[in-house]
Specification:
14 helices, 22 strands
Amino acid sequence: MGVHTLRTRHFDVLVIGGGAAGTRAAVAAAESGARTAMVLKTEVGRSGSTCFPAHGPHGSAYQAADGCSHADGDSPDRHFDDIMTAGLGMTDPRLARILADEAPDRLAELISWGFIPDPEPCGRDRPHWAGYSCFGSFPRAHGIWDVSAGHAGALVTAAASRLQALGVTVMPHTLVSDLLVQDGGCVGALALETDGDAFVLQAPSVILTCGGAGQLFPAATASREATGDGYAMALRAGAKLVNLEFMQFMARGLPDSGPVLWMLCPQVRNAHGEEVLGRYLPAGVDAEQACECRTLHYPFSSRDASGWLDIAIRSEAMAGRGIGPRAALTLNYDNPVSRARARDGKRPRPQHHWPGAPGPVPFPVQAAKVTHAAHAINGGVLISATGQSSIDGIYAAGETAAGAHGADRLGGNMLPNAQVFGRRAGQHAAERARGTQPDVRRATLSAPLDRLQRLQSRRGHRRAKKVKLALQEINARSLYVVRSEEGLIHHEHEISRLRHHVLPEIDTAQPAELWGAIEAENMLTVSHMMGAAACMRTESRGGHFRSDHPRRDEAWSEAIVQRWEDGQLRLRREKLDA
């Protein structure tokens, strides 16, 4: 495989990824007149966490202050305030303003394409229903109850027919290994087909919509494709990334166990049957306060008393007192407090579910077993208002992009983020590409091709899957919920060991193993970035908790920006609104 023998395909705009952000970006670019291609690991309608199966009967949600709230007084201004409050100083206000202002129009657009939000159930004069969601102060989260295409796949379904009508070239089952940067700007990407053959995708504008990196952890609410490819490729290309220490983790019930009902204030018990929450609660905080706070948001956050639930669950698991291979803990409802709360009808606000009927809460007949799962990263590639990164011609949207979220994120805000900045990135990428088609020089391909050939030549005795599993266990010990300097230093040593001594032992003779090795290397890169940011931030804020620095420190008012410079990862503190 040499530079002269590589096939080249020419486009104006290349979109990498095929979920909600990718399809919206591709539609916008094609509508702007650009020759557009979309490359994805699987197929449209099955790709990305957008189309990941729903856990339970409900799908995701879409935040938009479009007048459908059953509470008077909501507006894009209120939505903006909620974004900034959730972000705890780590959100770019310019991007938050755009997101709040444009979310209603993008929702109306989706509806015009055939997307159907939840109907209004109570006979009120509203076009559809909107409820509360995590960290939100108004009920503006429009539910997605059609989960036949995944928890938010209905958005992709709505856009898919437009891709075909607009002539977008879709390349399924294709992996992009690296971006190509020349004279300070992007000129395309190096890609692989399922048989391992490499080829060049030449395009002056590339949009990263590769999703997040949920596969860094043993359990995740993300698809198997979420291996951090976009973050790693952007870093190697020289782009800035931000807020990677802020990832959402959720305590979720295991299959075939009872319901997770924090409103009933269950007792948290370890494998020995011991009630453990009291061991971790600080003075002045009780169990009912922690559970009441948890009913207002699902993800772990150190911002309120609910965080001690997650800290207790994770700490007991790390101490070896969890149940089974998932190290779960039990939520036991067979206690006087839970029974009284069920009898008295103690209910939280309805969040993004249907409004609950008044009266007693049905009492669970079975205890729940809970463990943590990784959900979404609030950080990623730092973008401007146009969706462009710090490198000319490289754009990002959806979970790959950062700036519109912060230390915590509103529930249902990822989908409007994908639509708003997917559209903006697609339009601006098409404008940048207009009239330009620089040829990719041999020198530009040298480093990405050398990296690919190095991975392709390995003939060890390991499988890529084993390396990924080893990395997941390392991340679970050091990055899941409870972090400390000691653990993060050990984490960095383990990442280095895997990178230098274990990854080279993968046998990449088979194309599937080559794909796996590329993903594993990307996962190691993102783990390194996440651990480095978590180690640098010596405070607790939102989804980032340091047991050795358990309080928020207002001296840490800047975000941590990362960039690859002079052969190493550099971290700096920067204000996002500067």
